[in-house]
Amino acid sequence: MIQLTRTNLLMLREKAGSVVNSMRVLKARKQALVREFLDTTRPFLRSRAEIRSTYGKAIQELALSLGWEGKDSIESISAVTARPFEVEITEKSIWGLRYKEVTALEPAVRAPGKRGYDFLPTSSHLDEGINLFEKIMESMVEMAALRAN
Question: Most CB atoms within 10 A, among 11, 46, 87, 122?
Fold first, then answer.
């Protein structure tokens, strides 16, 4: 039981002020953490929307190129230009916090001349479709790096 003296009342007021200040500090820390979380997740959400949009355009370009070149031509180009695409995942640690770093061993987007087929007789729809699909691969590697952590 607390004695109702002036000294005890002053000590209780001091403790109450300390508690209020501590609550303010905790609220500020909470707001900073929420802000940091949102800053971290926004690029991830934006990249998913960009991939979805790019995928729609790539499918449209592929459909147009199927109309121009035909299925057999597209399949033969696909067989000739197939390549392994490898990524390296390394686990790292900073101050005891573990995270994974995802890096592609080669660039996903290639120059038209390095794709392995003669692009002069093909339509621009095929070239654009291939370019968009390679950009999707590049974006997915970047997104995997965000998600792996």
Answer: 122
**Do 145 and 108 contact (CB within 8 A), yes or no?**
no
pTM strictly above 0.85: no
d(CA 28, CA 44) in angstroms, rounded, equals 25
Q: In this structure, what token pair is assigned to residue 48?
A: 């998913």
Residue 118 scores a pLDDT above 90: no
Alpha carbons 51 and 39: distance in angstroms, whole number: 19
Spell out the alpha helix ranges (H) of the chain: 6-69, 71-81, 124-148
Contact 85, 104 (CB under 8 A): yes
- 96 within 8 A of 111, measured Cβ to Cβ: no
